[in-house]
Every structure is written in structure tokens, then in C-alpha cells.
Write a structure and sequence with these properties.
single chain, 61 residues, mainly alpha, 1 helix, 49% helix
Length: 61
């Protein structure tokens, strides 16, 4: 039972750490606009086009 509770606590801590890093990155990007735009989590991430490549035909893997 102790291992189970420790595992839940570790997973929860990792989740919170990920959210914290994302918030820090957003604040950093907002304070330093000269470094480029904040990358949104939308789109496929496989191409540099401005459009979302949801169909996958414009992505070159």
C-alpha cells in the first residue's frame, strides 16, 4: 500500500512540475518577445508552415 501511495504522489508531482515549467516558459516568452513567438501546442509540430497540418499531407517526415 505504501508503494502505491508513493507512486501516486510521484506521478502527481511530475504533473505539477510539467505545468509549472509550462507556466514559467510562457512568462519568459512574454517578457522576452525579441526571442521569437511562443509556440502554441496546436498543430502537428512536424512542419514550419503557419497552417495546422491536420491531414498530414503537408508534413514531410
Amino acid at each position: 500500500m505504501g508503494t502505491y501511495l508513493i507512486t501516486i504522489a510521484v506521478i502527481f508531482a511530475l504533473l505539477l512540475a510539467g505545468i509549472g515549467v509550462d507556466r514559467l516558459y510562457r512568462k519568459f516568452a512574454a517578457r522576452n518577445p525579441q526571442l521569437g513567438p511562443f509556440r502554441s501546442a496546436e498543430g502537428c509540430g512536424c512542419c514550419s508552415s503557419k497552417k495546422s497540418c491536420g491531414d498530414g499531407t503537408s508534413c514531410s517526415n
